[in-house]
Amino acid sequence: MPLEPASDTPAAPASVPPATLRAGLAGVSPAVALPAPATDAPAAALRRYAPGDVLAGRYRLTELIGEGSMGAVWKARNLALNLDVALKLIRRDCAAPEAASRLLKEAQATARVSHRAAVRVFDLSFTEEGEPFVVMELLQGRSLAQVVAESGAMSPISAVQLLLPVIGALSAAHGAGVVHRDVKPANIVLVRDGRRTVPKLIDFGIAFTDTRAVDGGQKEALVGSPAYMAPEQVRGGQESDARSDVWSVCVVLYELVSGRRPFGGPGSISIVHDVLRVDPPRPEAFEAHPRLWEIVERGLAKSPDGRFPAMASLGRALAQWAIAAGVAHDVTGASLVDYWLPSS
Q1: Which of 61, 187, 197, 217 pairs with 236 at a CA distance of 20 to 30 A?
Q2: Where do the CATH 3.30.200.20 domains begin and end in the chain?
Q3: Which residue in 8, 93, 182, 338 is the catalytic one?
Q4: pLDDT category, 9, cuts 50, 70, 90?
Q5: Is 182 assigned a catalytic role?
Q6: What's CA 49's distance to the chain center, in Å?
Q7: Domain 18-136, architecture per CATH
Q8: What pTM does this model have?
Q9: What are the distances in angstroms from CA 12 to CA 87, 139, 150, 264?
Q10: How many CB atoms are closer than 10 A to CB 260?
Q11: pLDDT single digits (tens) 177-199
Q12: CATH homologous superfamily of 141-340
């Protein structure tokens, strides 16, 4: 089971968050056929992309933002609309045969999610060599991981206000049949919108969708960040559902309020052990907020059946706690009552 290293502190240009740069490549089964490459040369022999390259006749590459093991993200200019966008491409020195289909699956999963706090996909196109690329919203901001690394813990109220829009985006994703499976601070980008901050959920690269086909009943290899993975993801043997994302959100909330992760250790093996076997202690930061701790503790139940049954249930519980604490809006300025408790 391939797992990312325990360290999750990103290092990348502030203009676009590292989580976007390292976005994974997985998701749903392709709904369209990928064209065969126009060249017989192996991928490693193809010229690497360079600034000034124009793809599909309308996207000019301007700056390499970052690279992962299979993909690269570029800042590009849509020549027809005179608009800056982000392009995710397959690295030309990547020989992984599944890279193209995975990129397509990620684009399809992301496109199914419509919410202000989720990154948008604009287009799926192909280079002259037949290689697919995804055109996405270009986010100008910093990842939540960067903010936490630089500024430390937040007040419980600030943490809840920041996460509620992300929870809303995840609820929308679940309603569209998409489970993110990799919710973590590095995959939340804080974007300025006028005087407000809008958190954006990115990287649906390992999302599970309700239309994914698994050949021969075999489950796909699990990938992700062990410190944020639910026990059922770590163990494998069953599909993730919305309750896996509930777990991950509560891990992030725990970290934002306390300044540390609930499950930690010197390496991935010790983290996995703690995820499976250890109940996290209540941090001092939660002592004055027993109801908030009850919410987090329920979200971190080892059994999915012990957690909130849906992301919307978690959102409502947190909104009710915030309202009781005198908070009326989330970080974007949206009314908590109108969004989470419309019938109250």
Answers
A1: 187
A2: 18-136
A3: 182
A4: very low
A5: yes
A6: 26
A7: 2-Layer Sandwich (3.30)
A8: 0.82
A9: 16, 13, 14, 24
A10: 15
A11: 999 989 999 999 999 988 899 99
A12: Transferase(Phosphotransferase) domain 1 (1.10.510.10)
